[in-house]
């Protein structure tokens, strides 16, 4: 945990809907896998209630959080409840987090148990993104990005 915590990531909320019930879970184990076909991978703890919901719905969405959405990351990790109702949008039939930086809507392509997690490959069916700054996660803390490109 300490060593892999040095691998900086973005922060996403995985969402799905099953029997009219929306469920969300904060995740940073998200990666791109293939362009042809377009595949991404998410890793879900076998103890997470999200697991059965993704299996049942066979679809999930990934909302990439912006630097203004730390509170939502804490909320969907069960670490701090928001008092106000969480605002979801709908994207191609799937719930997503309102005002996120990007949405990826997937159909489950394959699932592989891996230790205490299940790896879900999602076939990307729809994508959307807007300009903005991402929320990042490093050694258990949240950061925004700092640009270190050489100025021309
Ligand atoms: P719960 O614990 O029941 O739900 C999580 C929270 O979301 C609860 O507070 C719940 O109230 C809220 N919530 C869910 N649905 C709704 C809704 N419809 N409306 C309002 N609130 C709702 N775990 C992984 O398995 N894989 C990862 O890649 C991963 N990455 C993480 C990255 C970060 C930065 C953090 C902080 C945590 C990460 N976790 C990851 C841990 C994971 O987010 C938590 O263990 C989470 O609580 C598991 O969610 P759950 O599906 O068991 O649902």
Number of E strands: 12
Succession of helices and strands: EEEEEHEHEEEEEE
Q: Please tell me how large the radius of gyration is.
A: 15 Å
**What is the global morphology?**
globular
Provide structural commentary:
27% of the residues are buried. The protein has 152 residues and is mainly beta. The chain has a 7-stranded antiparallel β-sheet with strand order 3-2-6-9-10-5-4. Strands 1-11-12 form a 3-stranded antiparallel β-sheet, with no helix packed on it. The chain has a two-stranded antiparallel sheet with strand order 7-8. It has helices at residues 50-57, 70-76, and strands at residues 9-10, 12-18, 21-27, 30-34, 39-45, 59-64, 88-91, 94-97, 102-114, 117-129, 135-138, 141-144. The longest helix has 8 residues, at 50-57. The protein has 2 helices and 12 strands; from the N terminus they run E-E-E-E-E-H-E-H-E-E-E-E-E-E. Strand 11 and strand 12 form a beta hairpin. It binds flavin-adenine dinucleotide. The site of flavin-adenine dinucleotide has 23 residues, from strand 3, strand 5 and helix 2.
